[in-house]
Design brief:
16 helices, alpha/beta, 488 residues, globular, Amidase signature (AS) enzymes
């Protein structure tokens, strides 16, 4: 029998339908892989008993010929998604012991489709971070290592646990969220595929909020097809989320393998930034050549406000975070550190419960929203955000899709001093991803090749709003031509 954990979701579904193996056997193999790769610290809570019980139900449904769209597929769930009866902490001390009494819309859709839940995946605290080093439960270790090196590398963030677990065959696929690049950057660092769909494509109900106008759920999978399969199930309007879009959900799988001849692919000059890793640039140029060879038209475009995207994001996102995190007061749920008076209880709980990066962003957000600074910072950032949206609108008059690197470098070592001592250095890892989040557009990151040190690099395909179909179409062409077969 094939090593079951190496199968893609599409292959596993085919094997389950043909009864080549059972859902219980598939789940047991993933549980064994979780034991083998505990060093990654990808899971903060493992639920093998839950997964095996769900797998037994899946086997009965296959026997009755009534399987769901994802029947028997073992998945990991980012610790930002509320899971009924299963601890959810957003990897923060302040949510210690919190067990939701309801299910997020995304996880409910996946459960209804027949998945089994292997556990909750590690992440940056409240999704604030780009390396998974801000987690209360310690960092995730990237399963990849540079050649001839034993130095542990970051998996990217905030969905580092999701990307690392998929890369290390510890789940068939994973839920993730992206606020400024948190699906795409860890996918690039770990050599897997992830898509941030259009804002509003997937419900945010039951996802612990970071920045409400930016947060968007999406899948991380082993390849483009798996992401297409997962996104179809995860998408759709939800009355519980006022920002959820009433748009049709196409069968994304049908776009894979379609002819891309005549499609116009935009290459933004602003993304050839100083300090861009030479190998990243090389693979970007090679991918452009691949698309051109398939008959696509390469178009030079400009996104002139790109240079303002990072400062704009780091005003808007912390401002929204400061409002969203005000609910954590030690009264209703999670950690409580008592004090002499109510004010002391608030101060003690938040001082002990929030980590350094979360406190930093709350302080920045509170500052830019305060009297005397609201107009100077927050309103100005919102105006610049509008300009960034208009940049993309103008660009898409000249092209159908945009191709850029996902991150300016490969994965870097855990505890990298240059990152730890200056948070702005860490934030610069989002330079290629935040503008897409600010514009609410879909973008998929796929692995394109390895550096000379043997580390994966990713490219992102950016589409028009609700045009994930074309994103998948071009991504599948690149995947076929790149033939990425990285070995950890």
């Amino acid at each position: 029998m094939t090593d079951l954990t190496k199968l893609t979701i599409a292959q596993a579904l085919d094997g389950l339908k043909k009864k080549e193996f059972s859902a219980v056997e598939l789940t047991k193999d993933y549980i064994s892989q979780m034991e083998k790769n505990k060093y990654t610290n990808a899971y903060v809570l493992e639920t093998p008993e839950v997964a095996l019980n769900q797998a037994e139900i899946s086997d009965k449904k296959y026997a009755d010929n009534t399987p769901g769209a994802l029947e028997g597929i073992p998945m990991g769930i980012k610790d930002l998604f509320c899971t009924k009866g299963i601890r959810t902490t957003a990897c923060s001390h302040i949510l210690d012991g919190f067990v939701p009494q309801y299910e997020s819309t995304i996880t409910q859709k996946l459960l209804d489709a027949g998945i089994s839940v292997l556990g909750k995946l590690n992440m940056d605290e409240f999704a604030m971070g780009g390396s998974n080093e801000t987690s209360y439960y310690d960092p995730v270790v990237n399963p990849w290592k540079a050649k001839n090196s034993n130095i542990d590398l970051v998996p990217g963030g905030s969905s580092g646990g999701s990307a690392a677990a998929v890369a290390a065959q510890m789940c068939a696929g994973a839920t993730a969220t992206d606020t400024g690049g948190s699906i795409r950057q860890p996918s690039a660092f770990c050599g897997v595929t992830g898509i941030k769909p259009t804002y509003g494509r997937c419900s945010r109900y039951g996802i612990v909020a970071f920045a409400s106008s930016l947060d968007q759920a999406g899948p991380i999978g082993k390849d483009v097809r798996d992401c297409a399969i997962l996104l179809k199930t995860m998408s759709g309007h939800d009355d519980k989320d006022s920002t959820s879009a009433r748009v049709e959900v196409p069968d994304f799988e049908k776009f894979l393998g379609q002819n891309i001849k005549g499609m116009r692919i935009g290459i933004p000059k602003e993304y050839r930034v100083e300090g861009l890793n030479k190998e990243v640039e090389k693979y970007w140029d090679e991918a452009i050549a691949m698309l051109k060879a398939r008959g696509a038209e390469i178009v030079d475009i400009s996104l002139p406000h790109t240079k303002y995207a990072l400062p704009t994001y780091y005003i808007i996102a912390p401002a929204e975070a400061s409002a969203n995190l005000a609910r954590y007061d030690g009264i209703r749920y999670g950690l409580r550190v008592n004090g002499e008076h109510l004010d002391n209880l608030y101060i003690n709980t938040r001082s002990e419960g929030f980590g350094k990066e979360v406190k930093r962003r709350i302080m920045i957000g509170t500052y830019v929203l305060s009297a005397g600074y609201y107009d100077a910072y927050y309103l100005k950032a919102q105006r610049v955000r509008r300009r960034i949206v208009e940049d993309f609108q103008a660009a898409f008059e000249k092209c159908d899709l945009i191709l850029t690197p996902t991150a300016p470098t490969p994965a870097f070592p855990i505890g990298d001093k240059s990152m730890q001592e200056n948070p702005i250095t860490m934030w610069l890892n989002d330079v290629f991803t935040v503008s897409i989040s600010l514009a609410g557009l879909p973008a998929l990151s796929l692995p394109i090749g390895l550096t000379s040190d043997g580390l994966p690099l990713g490219l992102q395909v950016i589409g028009k709003a609700f045009d994930e179909g074309d994103v998948f179409k071009v991504a599948s062409a690149l995947e076929e031509d790149a033939k990425f077969e990285g070995v950890m």
